[in-house]
Inverse folding.
């Protein structure tokens, strides 16, 4: 038998004889299913972003961000309050197990473990199912994180003294003070500056004396007898010095 005798070669119709360039099909062949990234899709994204940006700008104009007075490092009684999205961490640091000598646990270890667990969720639960009931690990971790954040934020808002915070952070009016006068010298000498501030603006231990509306006689009486948290006998000078100091404080007005 000769080689090749009786053999036939049949071509495979699934393989084209001509080599065509690898060009994707036009988007018009898939109506309603896909679109070009530029400019169709990107333009829609910009339009939606512009709407949200304009809305946010209108909100900031209608409701400006609240401002407090200038930070005073000498005011040890000031209680800072973080923004709302950090209130849950702020509340966490109030508990015994996460405060004081255990601040590192509340500030770094516990949040680090929580966020680390969320980042590892895709590797901890690699099931192909999409139903929440079929993915108990991932759903449980997410529900626990959301519930903890909501609870701690709620506790922080409910237990915070908002009235005291508004007073301690209130912007105080600047006063017209003659710091070369005898009255201001007595104000410093008698230690009033430690509680009421160098500009009589008040502080953690004493209220503002600007525009107090009190006559000199009442101020002198308070300096001798005390009032509220101010104990009696604070003033140690003579009656003449008390008269000068009282008139000085009574005449302090805002600019």
């Amino acid at each position: 038998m000769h080689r090749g005798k009786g053999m036939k070669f049949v071509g495979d119709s699934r393989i084209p004889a001509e080599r065509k360039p690898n060009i994707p099909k036009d988007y018009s062949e898939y109506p309603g299913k896909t679109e070009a990234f530029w400019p169709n899709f990107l333009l829609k994204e910009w339009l939606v972003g512009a709407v949200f940006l304009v809305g946010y700008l209108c909100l900031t104009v209608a409701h400006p961000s609240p401002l407090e007075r200038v930070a005073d490092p000498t005011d040890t009684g000031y209680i800072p309050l973080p923004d709302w999205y950090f209130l849950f961490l702020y509340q966490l640091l109030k508990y015994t197990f996460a405060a004081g000598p255990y601040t590192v646990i509340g500030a770094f270890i516990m949040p680090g473990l929580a966020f680390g667990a969320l980042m590892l969720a895709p590797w901890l639960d690699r099931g192909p199912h999409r139903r929440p009931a079929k993915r108990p690990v991932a759903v449980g971790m997410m529900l626990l994180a959301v519930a903890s954040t909501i609870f701690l934020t709620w506790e922080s808002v409910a237990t915070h003294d908002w009235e005291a915070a508004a007073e301690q952070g209130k912007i105080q009016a600047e006063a017209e003070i003659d710091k070369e006068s005898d009255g201001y010298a007595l104000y410093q000498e008698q230690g009033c500056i430690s509680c009421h501030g160098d500009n009589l603006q008040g502080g953690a231990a004493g209220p503002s004396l600007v525009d107090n509306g009190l006559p000199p006689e009442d101020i002198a009486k308070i300096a001798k007898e005390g009032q509220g948290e101010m104990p009696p006998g604070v003033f140690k000078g003579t009656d003449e010095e008390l008269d000068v100091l009282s008139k000085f404080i009574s005449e302090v007005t805002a600019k």
Observations:
- Residues 84-168 form one domain.
- Residues 89 and 191 are 39 Å apart (CA to CA).
